Amino acid sequence: MTASTVITGIGSLVTNDPSLSASGGGTRGPRDPRDLLGLIQDAAVVVEGDRIAWVGESRKAPPTDNRVDAAGRALLPGFVDSHSHLVFAGDRTEEFAARMSGRPYTAGGIRTTVAATRAASDAELSANVARFVAEALRQGTTTLETKSGYGLTTRDEVRALRIAAEHTDEVTYLGAHVVAPEFADADDAAGYVDLVTGEMLDACAPYARWIDVFCEEGAFDGDQARTVLTAGLARGLIPRVHANQLGFGPGVRLAVELGAASADHCAHLTDQDVDALAGARDTVATLLPGAEFSTRAVYPDARRLLDAGATVALSTDCNPGSSFTTSMPFCLAVAVREMGMTPDEAVRAATYGGARALRRTDIGTVTPGARADLLLLDAPSHVHLAYRPGVPLTAAVWRAGKLAYAAPHAA
Ligand code: NIG
Ligand code: FE
């Protein structure tokens, strides 16, 4: 029989299910932020195997084999980081330093990482991904999507996806990150799109769940992006789009039109774009504050999207060019301070929102039947994630019911 464990004495539990809110859930108006997170005070969670078996007030918890005392600290779902680019070699320290002295960010920097990634061994690339996944875990991330996109040949893109798949189930084919240097130098973007939608797609599709395209000036225009995404759809890959990051453009509307799981970045939105996202059944607006932070760009307006009714996710975009952070708490704090989100909205976006952006119903909540992916904070409330920026607050992380990380100071 599977052993059961109760985590008890949870000062404040984020379930992300308003109907579980101990103080009445639906009796409050929908705008009450306490309902958004389905908070339970003085709570307990029972874990059986890899799943959550029971959630409620501590005093009502059923008997279990084992017991962990949270000692009044906050527990929430592990973060779901639905957008990262971890398969790469080298870094771009100099480019970052130059940017901080005034140079603008452009898509062209991707080439530097492509050269370093192609030159790296499989073992080196895999070790890099493992290091970043472990780094993310220590900060509370229990699910992470990652992309190819620094290979840009059939061989190198397949290699990136194969390596990504060793570390996560959420793998995205991003052959259409920029036009590969060989094709760009020959002024043959069309030839590269043919490759990305032909031989490269055939080779990559078995390793990926998602297909992505960087729809932006300097990368791929709306027509090219549509060609890439529809080819992916025909091979059973689900679209997600790098959209409206550096300027206005067709990316967001294309994402919604094609039923993409997510439109990512959304930093430059017209009213039409916002309406499209608000009316979308299945397309999440994923905001990536690390990118605007590290490129010193204008942050997306999360308030505008939330007020319009869009589903919002927060994610790191971890990559060596525009956002070299694996820290969901950092992104969440910036989103609260700079993007008009309340702490509750940011926590929900970084957990439930990320799960929606990955079309996952088994993660992102602390509810019976969900996978037991849990983050115990060294703090009495999830609000501390934004209130105490830059402070490591992870006490422990469980992934699929197993203790995956315990902070040395928080035994
Ligand atoms: O999401 N925008 C496109 N891709 C990455 C940046 C890649 C790079 O600069 O290496 C992003 O920001
Ligand atoms: Fe990205």
TrEMBL record:
EC class: hydrolase
Binding-site residues, Zn(2+): H83, H85, H242, D317
Coiled coil: none
Subcellular location per the Swiss-Prot or TrEMBL entry: Cytoplasm
Catalysis performed (reactions): 4-imidazolone-5-propanoate + H2O = N-formimidoyl-L-glutamate
UniProt keyword annotation of Chloroplast present: no
Record note on cofactor: Binds 1 zinc or iron ion per subunit.
Record GO terms (molecular function): imidazolonepropionase activity
Pathway the protein acts in: Amino-acid degradation; L-histidine degradation into L-glutamate; N-formimidoyl-L-glutamate from L-histidine: step 3/3
The Amidohydrolase-related domain, residue ranges: 263-382
Binding site for Fe(3+): H83, H85, H242, D317
UniProt binding sites for N-formimidoyl-L-glutamate: Y150, N319, G321
Main localization, broad class: cytoplasm
Entry EC no(s): 3.5.2.7
Entry binding sites for 4-imidazolone-5-propanoate: R92, Y150, H177, Q245, S322
Cofactor or coenzyme needed: Zn(2+); Fe(3+)
Alphabetically ordered keywords of this record: Cytoplasm, Histidine metabolism, Hydrolase, Iron, Metal-binding, Zinc
Biological role stated in the UniProt entry: Catalyzes the hydrolytic cleavage of the carbon-nitrogen bond in imidazolone-5-propanoate to yield N-formimidoyl-L-glutamate. It is the third step in the universal histidine degradation pathway.
Family: Belongs to the metallo-dependent hydrolases superfamily. HutI family.
PANTHER family to which the protein is assigned, alphabetical: IMIDAZOLONEPROPIONASE, IMIDAZOLONEPROPIONASE-RELATED
UniProt protein name: Imidazolonepropionase
Species this protein is from: Actinacidiphila acididurans
Gene: hutI
